[in-house]
Amino acid sequence: MWPDERVVEFVNENFVPARVHVKADSEQFRKYSEQYNAPWTPTILMLDSDGVERYRIEGFLPNDDFLSQLMLGRAKIAFAHEQWDEAAQRFREIVDKFPDADAAPEALYWAGVALYKKTHDNTSLKETGKAFTQRYQDSSWAKKASVWR
Amino acid sequence: MPIEFRHDVDAVLEYAKHEGKPVLLDFSAAPM
């Protein structure tokens, strides 16, 4: 996961990275694993600048899945801060770059929501609902978006 | 170039708040 150059670049550009190791940083590990309810490793939390958790990855993932999940977390931070254009762009980037990743259907869904939140025009939701008839039909996100068609 | 993880989480949270930047917090048990 971590040695992947794309992951390194993405993390360094988008986050202040911190690590608590179960043995080497045992006191901090105990404190923060309790505070953030993270009893298992690896667990990666993405916090906004106020320290509020916005997304987490639990367990090992191959590189493409890992990077797309990091991108999803970063997009959700933008979404939580009502940065609709940035959030929509970040969600779309996941679908474009990693169309086969588990994160892609969720990203497609939230890209539509981010555009709707910006415009309050339900066209974006309808288009997203229709997009799910063409791809990711078996995903839970397609079911969730089916009411928008 | 590796990721330069910091280990003082309190300091990281304070720095992130000041800089308006998100935090990635890795709970790890990887061999050192």
How much helical structure, as a percent, in the residues of chain A?
55-70%
Termini separation of chain A (Å)? 38 Å
What is the CA-based Rg of chain B, rounded? 11 Å
Structural class of chain A, by secondary structure, is mainly alpha
| Biggest β-sheet strands, sense, barrel of chain B | none
Order of helices and strands of chain A: HEHEEHHHHH
User: On the 0-100 scale, what is the average pLDDT of chain B?
Assistant: 94
Shape of chain B: elongated
Cα distance spanning the termini of chain B: 18 Å
- How are the strands of the biggest sheet of chain A laid out side by side? 2-3
State Rg of chain A: 17 Å
Number of helices of chain B: 1
Low-confidence stretches of chain A: none
- Helix tally of chain A? 7
The biggest chain-chain interface is: A-B, 41 and 27 residues
List keywords for this structure.
heterodimer; A: 149 residues; mainly alpha; two-stranded antiparallel sheet; 3 strands; 58% helix; elongated; B: 32 residues; alpha+beta; 1 helix
Walk me through this protein's architecture.
The complex is a heterodimer of chains A (149) and B (32). In chain A, β2 (43-47) and β3 (53-58) form a beta hairpin. The model of chain A has no long low-confidence stretch (mean pLDDT 97). A two-stranded antiparallel sheet of chain A has the order 2-3. Chain A is 58% helix and 11% strand. The longest helix of chain A is centred in the middle third of the chain and has 18 residues, at 63-80. Chain A has 149 residues and is mainly alpha-helical. In chain A, α3 packs parallel to α5 (103-119) and α4 packs antiparallel against α5 (103-119). The radius of gyration of chain B is 11 Å and the shape is elongated. In chain B, 34% of the residues lie in helices and 19% in strands. With 32 residues, chain B is an alpha+beta fold. Chain A binds chain B through residues 2-3, 7-8, 11-12, 14-25, 28-29, 31-33, 36, 38, 40-51, 54, 70, 74, 77, and chain B through 1-9, 12-13, 15-17, 19-30, 32. β2 (43-47) of chain A pairs antiparallel with β1 (23-28) of chain B, so a sheet runs across the interface.
